[in-house]
């Protein structure tokens, strides 16, 4: 872009400045915000095209496309282990990765509230950029809107991910078969407890941190270990938690799932916080965990591959797929009984992601 | 999906019901909302995959990908000529189409405010679905979040579009060359005036309607008429209007633009409303118009192709690209003078899209 006007434009005050309505009006102030905050944080040659749509290379021959989208309205915006910025990258990268695809590109739509501190926006943009770099994806297109004070809540971020799906991978929720093994990549409930404890200003002896992380590297490590058909289903148990996600899979596959309560990894501090708050970790959101349903004969191989990856060290075999046309999820409890694990209903945990 | 539970679930009350926090929690209520409102409106086999990411066919050989994203926060949600639903389709379809690509897929992220009427949400979803059908794109993935009353404003919609770009098309803002001709596809300012008049509760003798429309058909008609290299730049003058968009192009191309005020099509009612409201139609948003910068020797052929299309009947030649390394946009006024047409600055028109 040529130096267009000799006029002196004062740089944004990124220390004490705030978003005003002009930042969303599409004129000079919008361009300045985009240039000094977003373009600087996300800098890459694709984004630098500077047009309303971004032209991307086609996927390699034989690869299909994958898209996923996710809106992020988490409160608070900053929490132990992360913030809305990295979360908005992880959430969408993971939705793409759960199809077996390699996430490549992200778009980001920001809805900002008038008065939001520019310093916080910069911190969020930099957190997104770091998360995108770490996950190996480029933020290639964006949009910024501003709403009046009291018509939003700081910042909402909707991200959309585009990935390339290698031939032979099919990890949709309908592929679980009786006999398959249910794996989970680590401890559950960490994200939900981290957010709730921050929100309720609870102080636990050891702070629990969100598990927010991009899972595409873990997924590639799993596919590197076994033929693709052995990995039947991948899904990340976010809103609604492990319980709701397994119910979705059971419903889509027309099969039941039997869980072993004692095998489900839960951090002691998470268990203690759940006791205190009256919550069940099975229903708490996770942002850096995946469920894999795999062929029984290769379950141990997949599990070893998961455990060898930094994000799967506490991976565990937690259950089995069984014949059940009604698609119930049941759990053998630590007391030796059995109970039905239903979908999340009743009191919701709002704005957890 | 198998019929999972024998439990009787009461259908949503789509007449008098309202969004509550549970609709965003990812459990049973979320699934019901998605099923009864969004999946019903957008029904297509890709969306029906029902996984977090959606698998799409690869583009044809030789085609590149295009993505664009846009957040929609327009107020009011319903306005003469459209609503946030169709606008959220048109806005993103047009951003994809302005690269010369054929828009194929859309994703939609909804941020709903607690208490929002389900009847309005259904009407918006149906408007989106109709606009998508008309534009020939499928809504293939979505997400729904709910924020507390007073933390949003009814509904915000972020859409992302994916398209396929045929070889040989390159319509980025940096391609204007001195001598090229500037075309606009019709009257300017209609959308801005429609929104402002609704917002200010002004009553004009004849109601002005938003021009919101999908422009991909018009773009294809233009490419059908001339070799692709003749169409140098395409851009839709949304926020910031014709003036700001031409300044962007001039800056990207490192060339000046000379406009002829008398040639710029403006509806008399729009001109009158602008007089009344103290606005300049050059800075008002359009949602169904495009600017084309074209090779001079084929300008008339492109113009004829535009005029033969329902969305280009009032297309006009409004200016010329000139040598000017500073990238100024100048206008010969109807009084015979000349003035610089600057970027939008000063008082913004908030939430116009």
TrEMBL record, chains A, B:
Domain PurM-like C-terminal per the UniProt entry, residue ranges: 177-330
Pfam families (alphabetical): AIRS (PF00586), AIRS_C (PF02769)
Signal peptide: none
Residues covered by the PurM-like N-terminal domain: 51-164
An example Gene Ontology biological process: protein maturation
Entry similarity comment: Belongs to the HypE family.
Record's protein name: Hydrogenase expression/formation protein HypE
Native species: Derxia gummosa DSM 723
Gene: hypE
């Amino acid at each position: 872009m040529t130096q267009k006007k000799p006029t002196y434009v004062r740089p944004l005050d990124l220390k004490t400045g705030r978003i005003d309505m002009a930042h969303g009006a599409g004129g000079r102030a919008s361009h300045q915000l985009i240039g000094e905050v977003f373009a600087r944080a996300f800098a890459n040659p694709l984004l630098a095209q500077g047009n309303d749509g971004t032209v991307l290379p086609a996927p390699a021959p034989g690869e299909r496309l994958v898209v996923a989208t996710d809106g992020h309205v988490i409160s608070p915006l900053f929490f132990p282990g992360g913030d809305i910025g990295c979360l908005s990258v992880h959430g969408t990268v993971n939705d793409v990765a759960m199809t077996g695809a390699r996430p490549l590109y992200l778009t980001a739509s920001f809805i900002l509230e008038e008065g939001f501190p520019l310093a916080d926006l910069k911190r969020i943009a930099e957190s997104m950029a770091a998360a995108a770099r770490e996950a190996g994806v480029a933020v290639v297109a964006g949009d910024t809107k501003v709403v009046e004070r009291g018509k939003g809540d700081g910042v909402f971020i909707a991200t959309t991910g585009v990935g390339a799906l290698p031939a032979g991978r099919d990890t949709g929720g309908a592929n679980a078969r009786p006999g398959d093994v249910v794996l989970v990549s680590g401890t559950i409930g960490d994200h939900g407890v981290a957010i709730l404890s921050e929100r309720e200003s609870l102080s636990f002896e050891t702070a629990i941190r969100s598990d927010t992380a991009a899972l595409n590297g873990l997924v590639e490590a799993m596919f590197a270990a076994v033929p693709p058909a052995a990995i039947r289903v991948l899904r990340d148990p976010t809103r609604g938690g492990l319980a709701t996600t397994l119910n979705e899979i059971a419903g889509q596959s027309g099969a039941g799932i039997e869980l072993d309560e004692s095998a489900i990894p839960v951090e002691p501090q998470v268990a203690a916080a759940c006791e205190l708050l009256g919550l069940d970790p099975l229903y708490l959101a996770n942002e850096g965990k995946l469920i894999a349903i795999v062929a029984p004969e290769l379950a141990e191989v997949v599990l070893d591959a998961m455990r060898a990856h930094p994000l799967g060290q506490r991976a565990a075999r937690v259950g089995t797929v069984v014949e059940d046309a009604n698609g119930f999820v049941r759990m053998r409890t630590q007391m030796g009984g059995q109970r039905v694990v239903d979908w999340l209903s009743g009191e919701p945990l709002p704005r957890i992601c």
